[in-house]
Design brief:
The chain has nine helices and 15 strands. The strands form two sheets. The protein has a nine-stranded mixed β-sheet. A six-stranded parallel β-sheet has the order 3-2-1-4-5-6, sandwiched between helices. Helix 7 packs across helix 9. The longest helix has 20 residues. The mean pLDDT is 96.
């Protein structure tokens, strides 16, 4: 049996609570230290999860701790400095998305990890949601033949800003927050992108950045894919935080609705199954699908640490997703199709 890996979590904010619950529920890894610039916040989390050592300075933590992995769950502006520091002190570093604000910063983190001989994994958890894992298994089994059209749609009216008020203020919002997840899922299913166009809208007057976007992509395979997102849609019941999806192939179609019902359409008819995950013991609706995906992702990270899997996605792979997000802004601003070079990342 593999040794339990010892890790540290940097960043003790809203979403980090899910990270801690998942690490606590996993076999093979444990968090032994917490770090946050707000020491009160770190101490409060340490009390909830029984963590003995708490820091408000990552450099001091790295000097004092012997770590196998580091989970960086801070906001994007701090990622580069923390990752560049962490790769010198742990064999595996996990970084929350968005990975970086610029390709320069993302490439620097990838280079730093490579230079230190560390594995760098980006926490893109949508691809680890149960509905998408079920869809991927069906596609890989050939259930719908060769995919030629897909759509991934994240639309809701949930008040994200109560738990994450900084989202109101960021200049680049929908594409860098959820768009990265959708582009990652698009690549997961459909391969690399050759070109894309995009439109954005700013509908909610209380939000500084764009809160709606629609991107149309032509894949290198010749297939097409649409990713669309809205933080200002009205549905009843509210579907947050689920993603709807459709993938058409030459032998059938997969349709995932906003309530995690997956239908396989084929020549023999239509078959629907419920792919909504169980609510984790530590979780609650409506977050359970996301919470389940955090556990799935971190279980994968343990497999990576033990040499049983390659990172999904690695820092290097996530560069291609970042290229798409930044290209979407360029396409929207210039109102043109942007070609995505294989050498862009």
């Amino acid at each position: 049996m593999a040794e339990t890996k010892n890790g540290a979590l940097i960043g003790c904010g809203f979403f980090a609570e899910n990270h801690m619950h998942a690490w606590s529920a996993l076999d093979g890894a444990q968090i032994v230290a917490l770090c946050d610039l707000d020491l009160d916040k770190a101490q409060a989390m340490a009390g909830r999860f029984g963590i003995a050592r708490v820091y408000d300075d990552p450099a001091k933590m790295f000097a004092a701790e012997d770590l196998d992995f580091v989970d960086v769950a801070t906001t994007v502006a701090s990622h580069r400095s923390l990752v560049e520091m962490a790769v010198g002190h742990a064999a595996t570093v996990i970084c929350q998305k968005p990975f970086a604000e610029t390709l320069e910063d993302a490439q620097a983190m990838v280079d730093a990890a490579e230079g230190a001989g560390a594995q760098l994994i980006v926490h893109e958890n949508f691809r680890w949601e149960r509905p998408f894992l079920e869809m991927k298994a069906l596609v890989d089994q050939g259930a719908i033949g060769t995919p030629h059209q897909a759509q991934f749609s994240f639309r809701h009216g949930y008040d994200n800003y109560v738990n994450q008020p900084y989202l109101r203020e960021i200049e680049r919002f929908a594409i860098m927050d959820v768009g990265l997840h959708l582009f990652d899922v698009a690549r997961f299913f459909m391969g690399e992108v050759a070109s894309l166009s995009c439109t954005t809208q700013s509908v909610n007057p209380e939000v500084r950045g764009e809160d709606l976007f629609t991107a149309l992509m032509k894949m290198e395979s010749g297939a097409t894919c649409v990713c669309d997102c809205s933080f200002f849609s009205r549905y009843s019941p509210e579907p947050f935080p689920n993603t709807a999806a459709m993938i058409e192939g030459d032998r059938g179609t997969l349709v995932l609705d906003r309530w995690n019902r997956l239908t396989v359409h084929s020549a023999s008819g239509a078959e629907t199954q419920d792919v909504d995950p169980a609510v984790p013991a530590w979780g609650a609706k409506p977050w359970h699908c996301v919470q389940d995906s955090v556990f799935n992702f971190q279980e994968h990270a343990v497999a990576v640490m033990n040499g049983r899997a390659a990172p999904q996605p690695s820092g290097a792979d996530n560069l291609r997703t970042m290229v798409l997000a930044l290209a979407a802004y360029d396409a929207a601003e210039a109102e043109r199709v942007v070609r995505v070079s294989k050498d862009s990342a």
